[in-house]
Amino acid sequence: MVKDLLYLGVDVGSVSTNLVLIDKWGDVKEALYLRTQGRPLETIQRGLAKLAERYDDHQIGGVGTTGSARTLASVVLGADVVKNEITAHAVAASRLVPGVRTILEIGGQDSKLILLKDGVVSDFSMNTVCAAGTGSFLDQQAARLQISIEEFGELAVKANHAVRIAGRCSVFAESDMIHKQQMGHSLEDIVAGLCEALVRNFLNNLGKGKKLEAPIVFQGGVAANVGMRQAFEKALGHEIFIPEHHKVMGAVGSALLAQETVNRAGGLTQFKGFSMSEEKIAANSWECGDCPNLCEVIEIQEAGQLLARWGDRCGKWENALAVARSEAASEAQLQTAGQ
Amino acid sequence: MKITSVLTLSPTKVEAERPPIIGIPRALGYYEYLPLWRAFFECLGCSVVLSPVTNKAILDQGVRASVDEACLPVKLYYGHVKALSGKTDYVFVPRMISVQSKTYLCPKFLGLPDMLRGAAAFDSTYPQMLVANVNSRLSGGGWDKALMEAAEELGFSRLRIREAQKIAWKAQKDFEHRLIQGEYPPSALAIWEKSGRVLEPEGVLPRSTKRRESAPSGGPRIAVMGHSYQLFDSFTSMNLLARLKAKGVRVITPLATDDEKCRQATRFLPKRLFWSFGQKLLGSSLHLMNEPLDGLIYVAAFGCGPDSMIGEMVERHARRLDQVPYLLLTIDEHTGEAGVVTRIEAFLDLITRRKEGHLLSAKAQLG
């Protein structure tokens, strides 16, 4: 009997790399949450190797990638669909929490606010260059206070009253926290105050002028933090839902999108197979000095063969690869015709 | 058109000697007035040199030289002026105070030559400036007076200047007509961006032999609002227009809406807008929102005062109608391309998914 096909979703973000497998009903069968640690290629391969222990190639019906390294991941895996994080998160949330109107998503280095209407995105916003209020900042502060990030949220819930902390900028927030510590406030109150400051910052930056309607879903790595959830509930006056797979929702969304794309395209996946976890894949980059733009060109090689190039504003390095490819293809065609 | 009447006059000193080389920075007013300026100076016999297309070096140089409070496009202007040093006798720096009756440009346009002088005081490599004050709020104080004063300073005769103005306006009107027809400025400007001499010796305007670029058909119709110097500088806009075009989007820019339509669309406002660019952006946005439109992208320059207000007003009207998805892209010198690309992709997804009519959620219910 043919086993039911599974769909692989991969979300490569700044802090974590998540891989999920969903079945054709959209249920999550497997979810991996790995720290990217600045090595996206290796982390993807590590995740693939883990999945390869239990699954084989022909079980995979489609692959989708998302996250800031979505292009990189798609080249390595052979993705059927490459989608931005906003669409991926929205697709996942509206499938897992039908009727959702507002999605709060806080990841490692970015935060997003997505509003939906009738199951489709109607508006969204994303934080700009500033990382205040994202997961990395919480990580950093937890480390400074010498408490684990898991404990952080628990502490906040125990607070008597949250201290007011300036959350406008992570640097100022930190000096404000130190000041409050010196004044003699308890750790719980300070941690709770920090959560409230981050929520305030999130709502001011991303929610300005927008109407946040219930049901509200909170996802992303930071959603595990009960202190943050509590602060959001306090600020918004609504119950906040945290989906079971809140940490990997981007990956779930891209798996759902992969299923949709493959079905629409006639059922064949581009997946290169789990063997990619063992391939020697190298990325290198150089600064092109042909014009004053000094673009940083990135090149991905698999076993000495060039897979992809990007980063050039003018597109000449990218095009050079495409030309080389089409020439090779026509040559191969000629040869087969000759035979 | 021929300028024989002028050619028979005995030349003034400057005309007999080598006429000066005029540099035009590829920034700010360039995208809207290049044909006027270039045709004018070439008609006088000057050679015209344009600064290079914006690149990282020009941006870096501009950011370093300018005051911190300036917006990105003004910072960029500094870089373009500097890029012309050593290549010209004068750099043409118009002080655009008012180009339409009863309106003003923003204070940074008004103080542009002075800000540059301030920077040049500490840096001897700045090229010499030829300043023209355009103030249509004074009687007879528009472009004609500004160009007249600037050219007289160079030593040209009034008669010759008037003749050059006639031809220059013809060039400008032709360009503006093409924009109203929906042609993109990069394409409409192309004939005026050639190196060497563009105007033929008899003062005949150049004709483009290239086929006019038209937008693709069938894709979503999206209004992309923003100052011309922001939208059409592909470096600072991170190739926004080309990216949208590659995705099959039918882009409409503010330049395709004429002033009368803009005026009609803003008539219901309690107060008249007194910034010309602001009036154009708001008027064009409101006008286009009354037509079938799939989305509106407002490209704001970081540090631009009028944009922070006009962008907000456009957003409120887009939301009030609740029909037009709105995306605000604020661009500064630190903006990462990744963030912009993600936002554009998500915005286009939003539009297509909206059109497809929640296919996925319907499927989910069936499943």
UniProtKB/TrEMBL annotation, chain A:
<dbReference type="InterPro" id="IPR051805">
    <property type="entry name" value="Dehydratase_Activator_Redct"/>
</dbReference>
<dbReference type="GO" id="GO:0046872">
    <property type="term" value="F:metal ion binding"/>
</dbReference>
<dbReference type="InterPro" id="IPR008275">
    <property type="entry name" value="CoA_E_activase_dom"/>
</dbReference>
<keyword id="KW-0408">Iron</keyword>
<protein>
    <submittedName>
        <fullName>2-hydroxyglutaryl-CoA dehydratase</fullName>
    </submittedName>
</protein>
<dbReference type="Pfam" id="PF01869">
    <property type="entry name" value="BcrAD_BadFG"/>
</dbReference>
<dbReference type="InterPro" id="IPR043129">
    <property type="entry name" value="ATPase_NBD"/>
</dbReference>
<feature type="domain" description="ATPase BadF/BadG/BcrA/BcrD type">
    <location>
        <begin position="8"/>
        <end position="258"/>
    </location>
</feature>
<keyword id="KW-0411">Iron-sulfur</keyword>
<dbReference type="InterPro" id="IPR002731">
    <property type="entry name" value="ATPase_BadF"/>
</dbReference>
<keyword id="KW-0479">Metal-binding</keyword>
<dbReference type="GO" id="GO:0051536">
    <property type="term" value="F:iron-sulfur cluster binding"/>
</dbReference>
